[in-house]
């Protein structure tokens, strides 16, 4: 019995040891599992943090890139504006430079300057209104334009317009004009004055063109240089620099400064060409380039080189308007309105 009790007691102890061992293993397993879970949570948390940081970095970088692009765009726009301004300034300087040439007729006479021309154009525009050159059209032939200019010589615009309308009504084509007797041509343009002289000139021009080109036309001058236009028109009877300049300016829309009686007179009054006394004084200087007499022809050559191209049309028509209405040959009608 004693042995049996001892065995039973040993078994009880063994069983208790097994339970303690199992309990210890369970505790260790729980502890390890807790540690694993804790590690996993740290890993997941770290990943989330890095992801957020990476995402934030990308956003920051993206925002920085956008700001950088904006700066580049602003710089580019500023650069473009600067380039455009520089090009505009350079274009303006070149325009003034091209208009500020030394006179080929009166070397050393520097008037009018581009500033003189700009100022006068503004003042006359304030009185007579702005004048802008119309676009070129082909409604009228170059030959029509030349004959209109011839008929405008030494008469009013109203009379020359009526003369041309009468001529075209009686002789619809220039071949009809060529075939007609000169007295009939003269009769059709009588209201414009100097009819006999003008009729003879028009007939001779028709004859010359038919002989040289096989047809009565000047359309080839549309594509010709301004110098070529002047050369051919000036070769016709009664056609000088003013006639050629008017065809260039009014019909072909080229920058040319025609000088009529009003432009010539007002240019002398303003000192844009030297007077006779200054010409004589200049020509007494030894070793200098002699100046020619001041005439409409020499004034045309001088002013055509001195007046800026973009002002030639406006200044021409404004000076004529002013000479007719505000400052005729007998003196200003309203001195306060004459610049």
Name a few traits of the molecule.
globular, mainly alpha, single chain
| Beta-strand content estimate | under 5%
How many angstroms does the end-to-end distance come to? 153 Å
Structural class: mainly alpha
Taking all residues together, what is the mean pLDDT?
Answer: 80
How many DSSP-defined strands? 0
Oligomer: single chain
Major sheet details: none
In DSSP terms (H or I, runs of 4 or more residues), the helix count works out at 13
Radius of gyration, CA atoms, in whole angstroms: 48 Å
Topology:
Blueprint: H1 2-99, H2 114-128, H3 142-151, H4 157-170, H5 174-179, H6 182-188, H7 195-213, H8 226-234, H9 241-251, H10 261-270, H11 276-283, H12 296-306, H13 312-325
Helix pairs in contact: 2-13, 3-4, 3-9, 6-7, 8-9, 10-13
Question: What does this entry show, briefly?
Answer:
The protein is an all-alpha fold and 339 residues long. The protein has helices spanning 2-99, 114-128, 142-151, 157-170, 174-179, 182-188, 195-213, 226-234, 241-251, 261-270, 276-283, 296-306, 312-325. The longest helix has 98 residues, at 2-99.
What does this structure look like?
With 339 residues, the chain is mainly alpha-helical. The chain is built from 13 helices and no strands. The protein has helices at 2-99, 114-128, 142-151, 157-170, 174-179, 182-188, 195-213, 226-234, 241-251, 261-270, 276-283, 296-306, 312-325. Helix 2 (114-128) crosses helix 13, helix 6 crosses helix 7 and helix 10 crosses helix 13. The N and C termini lie far apart (153 Å).
């Amino acid at each position: 019995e004693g042995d049996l009790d001892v065995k039973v007691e040993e078994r009880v102890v063994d069983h208790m040891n097994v339970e303690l061992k199992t309990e210890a293993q369970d505790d260790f397993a729980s502890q390890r599992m807790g540690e694993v879970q804790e590690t996993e949570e740290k890993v997941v948390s770290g990943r989330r943090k890095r992801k957020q940081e990476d995402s934030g970095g990308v956003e920051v970088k993206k925002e920085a890139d956008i700001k950088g692009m904006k700066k580049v765009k602003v710089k580019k726009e500023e650069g473009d504006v600067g380039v455009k301004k520089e090009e505009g300034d350079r274009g303006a300087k070149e325009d003034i430079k091209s208009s500020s040439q030394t006179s080929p007729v009166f070397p050393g006479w520097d008037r009018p300057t581009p500033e003189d021309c700009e100022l006068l154009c503004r003042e006359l525009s304030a009185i007579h209104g702005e004048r802008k050159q119309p676009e070129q059209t082909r409604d009228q032939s170059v030959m029509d334009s030349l004959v209109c200019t011839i008929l405008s010589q030494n008469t009013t615009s109203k009379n020359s317009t009526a003369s041309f309308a009468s001529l075209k009504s009686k002789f619809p084509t220039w071949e009809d004009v060529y075939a007609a007797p000169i007295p009939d041509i003269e009769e059709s343009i009588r209201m414009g004055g100097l009819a006999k002289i003008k009729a003879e000139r028009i007939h001779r021009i028709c004859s010359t063109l038919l002989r040289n080109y096989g047809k009565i036309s000047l359309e080839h001058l549309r594509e010709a240089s301004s110098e070529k236009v002047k050369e051919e028109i000036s070769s016709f009877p009664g056609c000088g620099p003013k006639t050629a300049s008017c065809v260039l300016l009014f019909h072909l829309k080229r920058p040319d400064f025609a000088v009529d009686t009003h432009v010539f007179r007002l240019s002398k009054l303003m000192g844009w060409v030297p007077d006779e006394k200054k010409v004589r004084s200049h020509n007494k200087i030894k070793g200098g380039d002699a100046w020619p007499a001041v005439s409409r022809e020499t004034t045309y050559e001088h002013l055509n080189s001195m007046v800026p191209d973009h002002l030639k049309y406006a200044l021409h028509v404004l000076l004529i308007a002013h000479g007719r209405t505000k400052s005729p040959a007998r003196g200003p009608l309203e001195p306060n309105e004459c610049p």
